[in-house]
Amino acid sequence: MSEGRACRKCFMLYDENVKRCPVCKIPTSETHSGFVGIINPEKSEVAKKIEERSNTKVLSGRYVLNVR
Ligand SMILES: [Zn+2]
What is the number of domains present in the chain? Predict the structure, then answer.
């Protein structure tokens, strides 16, 4: 089900070969769920929620809602 690797802190989804988040400098996890594609972060409620949880600016791109 899950593809790629996600960051535990900023929730950004990366390709399988990205073992460490380039933004947060922490290891990524292959266990995650709730894929969302953020196209327009300024207008996205989901982007705001992710920002509140991560304390990191959400950019347009691929994110997940849960990382274990
Ligand atoms: Zn990160």
Answer: 1
C-beta separation of 21 from 10 below 8 A: yes
57-68 in b/e burial notation, b at 16+ Cβ within 10 A? ebeeebbbeebe
CA of 34 to the centre of ligand 1 (A): 16
For ligand 1, the distance from its centroid to the CA atom of residue 7, given in whole angstroms, is 5
CA dist., res. 67 & res. 21, Å (int): 13
Residue type for 63, please? Y
User: Which pTM does this prediction carry?
Assistant: 0.90
Rounded distance from Cα 28 to ligand 1 centre (Å): 8
Domain limits at 60?
A: 5-67
Average pLDDT, 10 consecutive residues per value, the chain (68 residues): 87 97 97 97 96 95 96
